TrEMBL record:
It is a lipid-anchor. This is NodT family efflux transporter outer membrane factor (OMF) lipoprotein. It holds the Pfam family OEP. Keywords: Coiled coil, Lipoprotein, Membrane, Palmitate, Transmembrane, Transmembrane beta strand. It is found in: Cell membrane. One of its GO terms (molecular function) is efflux transmembrane transporter activity. The keyword Coiled coil applies.
Length: 491
C-alpha cells in the first residue's frame, strides 16, 4: 500500500470517527430531551380532624401496656414475638436488604481483584503474531532473556486489577439511596407484622377469657335448669304438671348442654390458633379469669400527627422514595459512563523471569461509553421506573385514605361498643329478675311453664351476649391501637 493510499485511509478513518462522535453527541442530546421524569400525582392533604369524635383522652399516646396492663397477656405476646415464624422471616428479609445496601455502597468504590493467569498459544506461521514473534527474536536490539518462546508462546501474569465506574450523573448514588429506602421499608414491614401479631394475640387472649366466662354462665344456667327439671318432675308426680311440661324443661336443658359443648370446642380452637401464631405446640394458655373492668376514654387527635407514624404509612413513604430514586437512576442510564481500569502486575513469558524487576507492568486506562444500540432497552427501563413511581404515589394516597377511615371507624366502634354493653348489662339484670319472678309465679300457679322456659332462655342469651359485647369493646380498642401505629415497646 502506498503512502498516498495510507493517507487516504487515515483521512477516511478520522472522518468516520468524527461522524460517529457527532452522532453520539446528537443521540446524547436527544436522550437528555426525552428522558424527563413524568409528573407524579399530587397527594391529597389529610383533614385537620377526625369528625364526630368526643375529646376525652389523646388517642395519639396509646401504649399497649397502659391499655392492657395484664402481665399474663404481656408474657404471651413476648413469647409470640420471639417464636413467630413470619416475624423471623421478616428479620431475614431485613438482613437481605442490609446486604443489598452494602452492595450498592461498594458500587461507588473501585473494585480490586487479585489475578494469577497463565496461557500458552501456538501461533501459525502465517499469522501476525507468528511472524511478528519470529521476526522479533532476530532483532539485534534484544538480549537472550527477551527472546520470545515461539512454539508455544507462553504468558504468565500475577497482579492486581481494578475497575472503577465514576458516578458522573448520580446513577450509582441514586441506586444506593434507593436500597437504603428499601431497607427502611423492610424495617417498617417488620413493625407492621409485629403490630399484627400483638393484635391477634391480644384479641385471642380476650376471646379465651370471654369463652371461659360464657362457659361459666352456661354451666350456671345448666344447674338452674336441672333444678327446674326436678321441680317440674315433682309437680308431675303430684299431679300439678304434665309430661309435656317435663319434656319442654328437659329439651331446654339438653339445648343448653349442647351450647356448652360448642363453646368448649371454640375455646380449644382459639387456644390452638394462638399457639400456632406463637410458634409453639398445643398448651394451655395462662390467662385472667375475667375481662378487665376499666375501659379508657378516647379522643380524636390530629390525623397528620397520628397516621404518619403508622408503620404501613412509613413503609409506603420509603417505597415512594425508592421509586423516585429509581427513576433518577434510570434517567442517568441515558448518559455516558466513565470506567477506569488500572492494573499493576508481574508479567513475563517465562516463569524464570516472572519475578525479575523488568517484569513489572502497569496500566491505567479509562473509557467513556454512551448507550447506542441498547438505547431502546434503557427507554423501556425508564418508562417502567416512571410507571412504578406513579403507582407508589397512588398506593400511598390510598393507604392514607384507608388509614384515616380506619381510625375514625375504630374510635366510633369503641364508643358504640361501650354504649351497647351498658344497655346489655341493664337488660341482663332485668331478665335475672324476670326469671326469679317467673319461677315464683309458676310455683304459686300464676304463670305457666312456658313463661319460665322463655324467661330462662332470654336470660341465658342476654348473659352470653353481654360477655360478647364486653369483649367487643376490647376488640375495638385493639383495632384502634393497631390503626394508630401499634408497635411493641417498653414504654
Amino acid at each position: 500500500m502506498t503512502r498516498s493510499s495510507n493517507h487516504i485511509v487515515s483521512h477516511r478513518a478520522l472522518s468516520y470517527l468524527c461522524m460517529g462522535t457527532v452522532v453520539s453527541l446528537a443521540l446524547l442530546q436527544s436522550g437528555c430531551k426525552v428522558a424527563q421524569p413524568d409528573p407524579v400525582p399530587v397527594v391529597k392533604q389529610l383533614p385537620e380532624q377526625f369528625s364526630g369524635i368526643a375529646s376525652q383522652q389523646d388517642t395519639g399516646r396509646l401504649v399497649f401496656r397502659e391499655l392492657f396492663p395484664d402481665q399474663l397477656l404481656i408474657a404471651l405476646i413476648d413469647s409470640a414475638l420471639r417464636n413467630n415464624a413470619d416475624l423471623n422471616i421478616a428479620y431475614q428479609r431485613i438482613t437481605v436488604a442490609h446486604a443489598q445496601l452494602a452492595n450498592r455502597r461498594r458500587a461507588l468504590l473501585p473494585s480490586v481483584d487479585a489475578r494469577i493467569a497463565a496461557s500458552a498459544d501456538r501461533y501459525g506461521d502465517y499469522t501476525l503474531n507468528g511472524v511478528g514473534n519470529f521476526d522479533t527474536n532476530l532483532s539485534p536490539n534484544i538480549d537472550k532473556d527477551q527472546k520470545i518462546p515461539v512454539s508455544p508462546t507462553t504468558d504468565y501474569f500475577i497482579g492486581l486489577q481494578s475497575s472503577w465506574e465514576i458516578d458522573l450523573w448520580g446513577k450509582l448514588s441514586s441506586l444506593r439511596k434507593a436500597a437504603q429506602s428499601d431497607l427502611l421499608a423492610q424495617e417498617q414491614a417488620r413493625r407492621v407484622l409485629v403490630t399484627g401479631i400483638v393484635s391477634v394475640m391480644a384479641q385471642g387472649y380476650f376471646e379465651l377469657i370471654s369463652l371461659d366466662n360464657e362457659i361459666s354462665i352456661v354451666r350456671r344456667n345448666i344447674t338452674l335448669q336441672e333444678e327446674a327439671v326436678e321441680i317440674v318432675k315433682a309437680q308431675k308426680a303430684g299431679g300439678r304438671a304434665t309430661e309435656l311440661a317435663v319434656q319442654q324443661f328437659e329439651a331446654q336443658l339438653l339445648n343448653t348442654r349442647a351450647i356448652e359443648q360448642q363453646l368448649l370446642q371454640q375455646r380449644v380452637q382459639t387456644q390452638n390458633q394462638l399457639n400456632s401464631v406463637a410458634g409453639i405446640y398445643t398448651r394451655n394458655i395462662p390467662r385472667a379469669s375475667v375481662l378487665p373492668s376499666g375501659i379508657p376514654a378516647l379522643q380524636a387527635g390530629v390525623p397528620a400527627d397520628l397516621l404518619l407514624n403508622r408503620p404501613d404509612i412509613m413503609q409506603s413513604e420509603f417505597q415512594l422514595q425508592s421509586a423516585a430514586l429509581n427513576v433518577k437512576a434510570a434517567r442517568a442510564a441515558f448518559f455516558p459512563s466513565l470506567v477506569i481500569n488500572p492494573y499493576i502486575a508481574l508479567n513475563a513469558f517465562t516463569p524464570s523471569l516472572l519475578f525479575n524487576g523488568g517484569s513489572v507492568a502497569w496500566s491505567a486506562a479509562g473509557s467513556l461509553t454512551a448507550p447506542l444500540l441498547n438505547r431502546r432497552q434503557i427507554q423501556t427501563d425508564f418508562i417502567m421506573a416512571n410507571a412504578a413511581n406513579k403507582e407508589m404515589v397512588f398506593t400511598y394516597q390510598q393507604k392514607l385514605v384507608e388509614a384515616f377511615n380506619e381510625v375514625s371507624t375504630n374510635i366510633s366502634a369503641v364508643q358504640q361498643a361501650q354504649n351497647a354493653f351498658n344497655m346489655k348489662s341493664q337488660e341482663v339484670q332485668e331478665l335475672k329478675e324476670a326469671v326469679q319472678t317467673a319461677r315464683e309465679l309458676y310455683l304459686t300457679g300464676y304463670a305457666n311453664y312456658l313463661e319460665v322456659i322463655t324467661a330462662q332462655k332470654n336470660m341465658l342469651e342476654a348473659e352470653l351476649q353481654s360477655v360478647i359485647q364486653k369483649n367487643e369493646i376490647f376488640t375495638s380498642l385493639i383495632k384502634l391501637y393497631a390503626s394508630l401505629g401499634g408497635g411493641w415497646t417498653n414504654t
